[in-house]
Design a protein that fits this description.
The structure is a single chain. The chain is mainly beta. It has one domain: Methylamine Dehydrogenase, Chain H, CATH 2.130.10. Helix content is 0%, strand content 41%. The strands form three sheets. Strands 1-2-3-4 form a four-stranded antiparallel β-sheet, with no helix packed on it. It has a four-stranded antiparallel β-sheet with strand order 5-6-7-8, with no helix packed on it. It has a three-stranded antiparallel β-sheet with strand order 9-10-11, with no helix packed on it. Strand 5 and strand 6 form a beta hairpin. It is globular. 28% of the residues are buried.
Length: 138
């Protein structure tokens, strides 16, 4: 059975990703990433780190297996690695062309992105950001 659960007030929505605990839905669109509380379907407010530049069309987003890291496309063919617990950017990676899809490796230690140039880029997640790292924030 299909039913509409929400109309996202965001313009174009290109990508959706659930947080692993199911309490939040992330939506990536022009040019922002937004977070929605799945119990109320109201937007959860965060800092400007979620906002892209006006020339950005944030179209891809990925959440690691336990929800401690988020990767998403930003301007100038960049992929941003973000930690929601403290709302900090961990790293910004340069892709060869505009990324069309992003994912984490199964162990969460790498980010992969595929672009319009038909290439896949892979970057190591910095050790201090690994979900099981003693230095990672929870």
């Amino acid at each position: 059975m299909r039913r509409r659960i929400i109309i996202l007030n965001q313009g174009d929505t290109h990508s959706l990703a659930w947080m692993p605990d199911g309490t939040r839905l992330l939506s990536a669109g022009n040019p922002n990433v937004r977070e929605w509380d799945s119990s109320t379907w109201k937007e959860v407010r965060y800092s400007d780190l979620w906002k892209g530049d006006t020339s950005s069309s944030c179209q891809c987003i990925a959440v690691n297996y336990n929800g401690t890291l988020i990767a998403y496309q930003t301007t100038n063919d960049h992929v941003r690695l973000w930690r929601p617990s403290d709302q900090r950017t961990i790293a910004i990676f340069q892709h060869s062309d505009s990324p069309c899809c992003i994912t984490f490796s199964v162990d969460g230690k790498h980010i992969l992105a595929g672009g319009k140039d038909k290439k896949i880029s892979e970057w190591a997640v910095p050790e201090h950001a690994w979900p099981d790292s003693k230095n990672a924030h929870s």
